Amino acid sequence: GSIAPSIKVKPETGTNFDIGTKFNVGRVSGGVYAFVNQYSNFISQEFVATTASGPLAQAINFGDVRIQGLEFSLDAPLVTPYGVWSFNGSGALTRGTIVEGIGPNGLNLDDSPADNIAPQKFVGALRYTETSGRLWIEYGIRAQTKVDRVALMLSQSPFLIPQDLLSLDGFTVQRLAWGVNLSRVRERVGVTFAIENLANSYYRDHYQFAPSRGRSFTVGLNIGAF
Predict the structure, then answer these.
(1) How far apart are CA 121 and CA 73, in angstroms?
(2) 85-115: pLDDT as tens digits
(3) 179 φ/ψ angles, rounded to the nearest 5 degrees
(4) The whole model's pTM is what?
(5) How far apart are CA 177 and CA 217, in angstroms?
(6) Distance between CA atoms of residues 65 and 13, nearest Å
(7) Distance (Å) of CA 43 to CA 55, 150, 157, 226
(8) Considering only CA atoms, which of 78, 70, 72 is closest in space to residue 95?
């Protein structure tokens, strides 16, 4: 499609409130953070018409949008005589709501879901580094839950295509990596090997039309500052 400028768009303003706490218990550290973002005249780019060359998109103002959520992180190393095991993870619970608004075709959006909101996300990794620090191996995971609260501007759009909804499914992606530090000083020169998308899962990142690549093998060379 095409994008057309709009001279009718009003400035978007927001009031954001954040509160959080960090903690340290022995070697374990982490934090929990909450936020509420309230926007007036929220700006979003939406399809507004059909032309000979395809759909026409234009920036429009919604009335009021509220985005709120909870984020957390955790880092927990375990030191043993044979090496260090470390776990780190982070995640978010997010919810977006159009408190008051009208779509380009007069659609009432009051108290409906906001677009581009993934409800739950988690990223975590478990890593083992042997005592000298030369060898390490890591298993990681990234997961997002299905978007069940679909925005009315998407679900009732006359331009809706299958990819719009297929890209809202939940997914879990795994990664396995290992490496060796070649220099005597840690982290100066090293080689990293990784298997991305370990289970060869077919998935789309949320709000992306094209599916992500399948299982792949990568090799990297890391050179630090001397």
Answers:
(1) 12
(2) 999 999 999 999 999 988 877 889 999 999 8
(3) -165, 175
(4) 0.82
(5) 10
(6) 10
(7) 19, 18, 18, 47
(8) 70
Do 31 and 23 form a contact (C-beta atoms < 8 A)? yes
Cα 93 to chain centroid, rounded:
11
Where does the pLDDT of residue 50 fall: very low under 50, low under 70, confident under 90, or very high at 90 and above?
Answer: confident
3-state secondary structure the chain: CEEECCCCCCCCEEEEEEEEEEEEECCEEEEEEEEEEEEECCEEEEEEEEECCEEEEEEEECCEEEEEEEEEEEEEEEEECCEEEEEEEEEEEEEEEEEECECCCCCECCCEECCCCCCEEEEEEEEEEECCCCEEEEEEEEEECCCCCCCHHHHCCCCCCHHHHHCCCCEEEEEEEEEEECCCCCCCEEEEEEEECCCCCCCCCCCCCCCCCCCEEEEEEEECCC
Rounded to whole angstroms, the Cα distance separating 166 from 153 reads 16
CA–CA separation, 125 and 122 (whole Å): 10
Rounded CA gap, 151 and 168, in Å? 11
**Rounded CA gap, 118 and 38, in Å?**
18
Q: Give the C-alpha separation, 173 to 203, whole Å.
A: 9
User: Do residues 206 and 168 touch, judged by C-beta distance below 8 A?
Assistant: yes
**Residue 138: pLDDT over 90:** yes
